[in-house]
Specification:
alpha+beta, about 400 residues, GIY-YIG nuclease family protein, Phage_T5_Orf172_DNA-bd, 12 helices
């Protein structure tokens, strides 16, 4: 009995929503299968890392291999025609590079040799089936990144850190092995810049002895692009070393902060001052006990406030000094920006006219009790301020969620 459908049968099946498709025999050559297999490896890399493979001496050797391979596929019209139906990530859309010096059928072994690496497997095109020593090292040093399912928990942290960097409240410092950057410098709550992304060390597991006898630990690292990785402490350290652009993000301070007395060699850099206004403005009078001007000066505070009643930033009234904190070896502008950012939810919204009748909006007055300012100074000193925000309704600093 014939198995073929008649035209009437096809029409009936179409009405029932069933598509009839003739079975096609695979006619791909071994070379085409290798091209597709190699392209699928690049696609898996993009799925895991969130970006196309890149060139660069400091990058993982397999990323560099995939980058060269992708360039080659883009430059070959017949490869593009073969792969375009499979290119759901639009990897072939880039301009075809000039790689005339690279033979069309060059193997990955030869590519690795050109990149300065000796291939350790007979055929690195079979990466899915053969885990070479180089691949094992790469997998160990940079664990595959996955989507961070609870990224919404961490996004406010990344936003705050980026704002601190933009304002100068935090600085970023290059990581150099010869400068003594150690595994012990990687702690929970630290921020780094790795591969162009801000990396947050969310968790540090229990320490254990590695095969080489050194102490190690498993980390949970969250990245600002919404991915995360579970990797060893020494693997993150190596990755930071290998990335020429990697940086460490400082705490929101630029140097040694406050102390009762300076250490030998320290130079007094300025003073944080907290002032209370004597203005008879109704808004000021109603909130006098909690309304404070917070600023930083490099000069004498008494001289700074001598002409307060002529200065709109002082509400055109005399002020009294409530508290001062001497600081050493620190950038005054960055510190002032940091303090104002912390108390921004309680910033006074008031408009007054200066001596010439021009409207002025003073920006350094905050509805904050003195004891909260003391608490903020202590947290800046011990480096924990990044974990807190000011809650005006509770009139205290509270930990971030």
């Amino acid at each position: 009995m014939a198995n073929a459908f008649t035209d009437d049968d096809d029409a009936l099946l179409a009405e029932l929503g069933v598509e009839v498709e003739a079975k096609k025999e695979s006619a791909r050559t071994p070379r085409e299968e290798r091209i597709i297999s190699g392209f699928e490896e690049i696609q898996r890399f993009v799925e895991q890392h969130g970006h196309s493979p890149r060139h660069g001496e400091g990058l993982d050797i397999f990323q560099r291999l995939y980058a060269v391979r992708l360039d080659r596929l883009r430059a070959q019209p017949e490869s593009r025609a073969l792969l375009e139906p499979l290119d759901y990530q639009e990897l072939l859309g880039g301009a075809a590079p000039a790689i005339a010096e690279t033979p069309e059928d060059i193997s990955d072994d030869e590519l690795l040799a050109q990149l300065g690496v000796d291939a350790e497997a007979d055929d690195i095109t079979a990466l899915r089936h053969v885990r070479s020593a180089a691949e094992k090292r790469a997998a160990e040093e940079i664990a595959n990144r996955e989507r961070c399912d609870d990224f919404e928990r961490f996004k406010p942290l990344f936003d705050a850190v980026q704002a601190d960097i933009d304002s100068g409240a935090r600085i970023t410092q290059p990581i150099r092995k010869d400068a003594g950057f150690l595994k012990t410098d990687i702690r929970a709550g630290e921020f780094f810049i790795l591969g162009g992304q801000i990396a947050y060390v969310a968790e540090v597991g229990e320490p254990f002895k590695a095969p080489n006898g050194e102490s190690d630990a498993r980390l949970r690292v969250i990245y600002s692009n919404g991915t995360e990785s579970n990797l060893l402490l020494r693997s993150l350290q190596r990755a930071l070393y290998k990335d020429d652009t990697s940086r460490r993000v400082s705490e929101p301070s630029a140097g040694p902060l406050f102390a009762g007395e300076s250490d030998d060699g320290d130079l007094a850099s300025g003073t944080i001052y907290v002032l209370r206004s004597k203005s008879d403005n109704p808004t000021v009078a109603a909130n006098r006990e909690v309304l404070h001007k917070i600023g930083v000066t490099g000069g004498d505070v008494a001289k700074r406030i001598a002409n307060a009643k002529l200065d709109a930033t002082f509400l055109l009234a005399d002020v009294e000094i409530v508290a001062t904190y001497t600081l050493y070896n620190i950038n005054r502008t960055k510190l002032e920006n940091l303090i104002h950012r912390i108390f921004d939810p309680a910033r006074l919204d008031i408009k007054i006219k200066d001596r010439f009748g021009n409207p002025v909006i003073p920006r350094e007055w905050f509805l904050v009790p003195v004891f909260v300012i003391d608490d903020a100074v202590e947290k800046i000193r011990d480096g924990t301020i990044t974990h807190y925000i000011y809650d005006p309704s509770a009139a205290r600093l509270v930990r971030r969620d």
